[in-house]
Design the sequence.
């Protein structure tokens, strides 16, 4: 398995509302509501942590789900968001990634 | 239900100010004949104050942030403010006349992730547009900026305010919008000035002339839907909210005054003196606005248009009561459908009268 690195796009607006992350891409004005798991991946998408590590550390540990299943779902999720310019997917670590969005108060 | 409708519903349930319109300045490099603002600086908020307000708005859950003016770009720190707003993950929309936008500025707005830019275009003819803005060459500069923005992929809306002086030019502006790939938006609303001066209302197009605009599919889309008779008034309509003003949206002036909407000059507090959330949650004025349902409206509660009227509570407030009818919206409902409104009948029964406009004072002056 080749490693994937994901980073948040600069042209994205995000806000956590009632525990749910709302995201809109400036590129196509599509509005997304992320699930709890998707929000974890979104927050961790710093450009230098491998997707596999995000899934293993944050998703599998938190939700007691097999790694293969979680990784397959995570791959589909990041591919979908990358199509809308919300996440960038790379086969190498990206320098200068955006800081994580603010947590709700 | 669309995700946007669901988001609005959730914000309403949670009491979140999802959308905020923030005027960074009332200063402007144009002098549009219909403008409702004076253009002096009576003590605008500093960069640091604005950053603090933006932090408070982000913490309050605001997602959609419209930055406007005056002309926002006359502030030297405008890009710094936009940059800071984007660092807080707001969805930013900029309203501007665009004449200060060159290639560098267009690229910067795109790089900052501004979602869209709305530009006022009054006519496709320079003599008409420049005549309204009172700035020679303004149409040329505005259109050059729009083309630059579009060439870099920025979404642009051309807002075409309808007035007596440009009433023949809507199709021309729409054609321009099509040519450059911008969204066209017709706006027939002229608002009294913030100080209560209603003289600018002389620029309004007569109701009798609105009909041709409201029945033009190029301007309103599906005419049958746009001009459909109002739905029967049922309990959900009677229990419904007049609009989002004060419920999920509000307006902040360059001096920190908070209002339910840019078009609803009911001062609710000042962010220089109070935390934004304190005003949003506890202002007696906002609580009063929020308590109003369709059934509470004087005159309009018995109107057949209640379920589809675009009644603006701010314009109604400026006519004397936030629970009363708004004359221009009565006219619009009548022109769209041909069905007379309860407000029109009431005015006819009462005889001719001059609307008593409310004198508007910033909250800072009221509480001084």
Sequence:
């Amino acid at each position: 398995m080749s490693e994937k690195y994901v980073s948040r796009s600069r042209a994205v607006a995000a806000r956590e509302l009632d525990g749910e992350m709302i995201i809109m891409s400036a590129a196509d004005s599509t509005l997304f509501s992320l699930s709890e798991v998707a929000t974890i991946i979104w927050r961790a998408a710093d450009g230098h942590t491998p997707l596999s590590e995000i899934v293993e550390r944050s998703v599998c540990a938190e939700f007691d789900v097999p790694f293969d299943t979680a990784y397959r779902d995570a791959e589909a999720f990041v591919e979908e968001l990358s199509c809308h310019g919300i996440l960038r997917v790379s086969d190498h670590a990206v320098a200068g990634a955006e800081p994580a969005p603010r947590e709700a108060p | 239900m669309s995700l946007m409708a669901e988001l609005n519903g959730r914000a309403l349930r949670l009491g979140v100010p999802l959308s905020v319109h923030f005027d960074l300045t009332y200063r402007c490099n144009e002098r549009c004949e219909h403008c409702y603002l004076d253009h002096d600086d009576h003590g605008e908020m500093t960069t640091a104050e604005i950053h603090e307000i933006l932090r408070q708005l982000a913490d309050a859950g605001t997602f959609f942030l419209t930055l406007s003016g005056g002309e926002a770009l006359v502030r030297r720190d405008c890009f710094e403010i936009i940059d800071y707003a984007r660092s807080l993950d707001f969805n930013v929309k900029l309203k501007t006349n665009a004449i200060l936008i060159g290639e560098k500025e267009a690229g910067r707005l795109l790089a900052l992730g501004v979602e869209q830019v709305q530009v006022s275009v009054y006519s496709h003819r320079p003599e008409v547009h420049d005549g309204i803005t009172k700035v020679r060459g303004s149409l040329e500069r505005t259109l050059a900026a729009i083309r630059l923005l579009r060439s870099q992929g920025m979404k642009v809306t051309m807002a075409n305010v309808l007035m007596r002086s440009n009433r023949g030019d809507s199709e021309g502006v729409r054609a321009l919008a099509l040519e450059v790939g911008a969204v066209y938006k017709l706006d027939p609303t002229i608002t009294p000035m913030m100080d209560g001066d209603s003289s600018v209302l002389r620029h309004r197009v007569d109701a009798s002339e609105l009909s041709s605009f409201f029945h033009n599919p190029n301007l309103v889309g599906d005419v049958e839907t746009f001009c459909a008779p109002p739905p029967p008034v049922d309990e959900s309509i009677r229990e419904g909210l007049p609009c989002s003003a004060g419920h999920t949206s509000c307006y902040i002036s360059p001096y920190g005054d908070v209002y339910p909407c840019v078009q609803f000059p009911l001062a609710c507090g000042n962010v220089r003196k109070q935390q934004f959330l304190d005003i949003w949650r506890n202002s007696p004025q906002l609580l009063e606005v929020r308590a109003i349902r369709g059934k509470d409206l004087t005159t309009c509660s018995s109107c057949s248009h209640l379920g589809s009227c675009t009644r603006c509570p701010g314009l109604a407030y400026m006519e004397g009561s936030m629970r009363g009818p708004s004359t221009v919206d009565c006219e619009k409902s009548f022109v769209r459908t041909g069905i007379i409104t309860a407000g029109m009948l009431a005015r006819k029964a009462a005889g001719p009268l001059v609307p008593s406009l409310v004198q508007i004072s910033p909250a800072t002056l009221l509480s001084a």
User: Anything to note?
Assistant: Confidence is low (pLDDT under 50) at residues 353-368 of chain B. The longest helix of chain B spans residues 47-60.
